[in-house]
Amino acid sequence: MFSFSLFKPEAQLELSDVDARLARLSQSGYRNGWARRLCELALQARREGNYGVSALLCRGDEVLLEATNAVFQPHWDSAAHAEMQLLNCWERSVVEGRFKARELGALSLVSSLEPCPMCLSRILMSGVRHIYYLAEDPQGGMVTRARHLPPAFRNLMQCTDHGPLRVDSGYSKLARQLARHGLAQLRERLVAQGQGGQAL
Fold this sequence. Notes:
Layout: H1 18-24, H2 30-47, E1 54-59, E2 62-68, H3 82-95, E3 108-113, H4 117-126, E4 130-135, H5 151-157, E5 161-164, H6 169-180, H7 183-194
Parallel strand pairs: 3-4, 4-5
Antiparallel strand pairs: 1-2, 1-3
Helix pairs in contact: 2-6
Domain CMP/dCMP-type deaminase: 29-156
Protein name: Nucleoside deaminase
Organism: Aestuariirhabdus litorea
């Protein structure tokens, strides 16, 4: 039986309270706008039965593309982290002619939770050079542990601007709580899937 070391307990987030909490947070400045949208999307992902994580691809203050975690719903997909979904959408958009591939280096990828090793590796290989997140992930985040990346990826990381997004701290707290919501049950489903069980 797998045992995960979970975060320190904090007050359980009630998903029904999120809209009211968002209404109380600052809406000034485009970065707070990004943060608000990330929290709205993370809430959507959680309500759909997935991890409460989301990501945006932005040009200046304009949100070009958005994505949510979709590991469990609509079907099991272990690679369907929000950042992976976002980059899949970007690459489809390039093929369709909506964007030019060379534009990516000037865009910002912003996620509600610090990217994991899989996502950070893909982000770096994609050519994204501006990587931000609302909440650190001490259990699985890789940006804060970039010094442990293999040399080729450390070199790519040195070409990036990265770190926490500077926004109203209430957004960061809410993003962290959304990412942690139902985490124990979701991890049990993840382990069951790996052992040949069915994702519910």
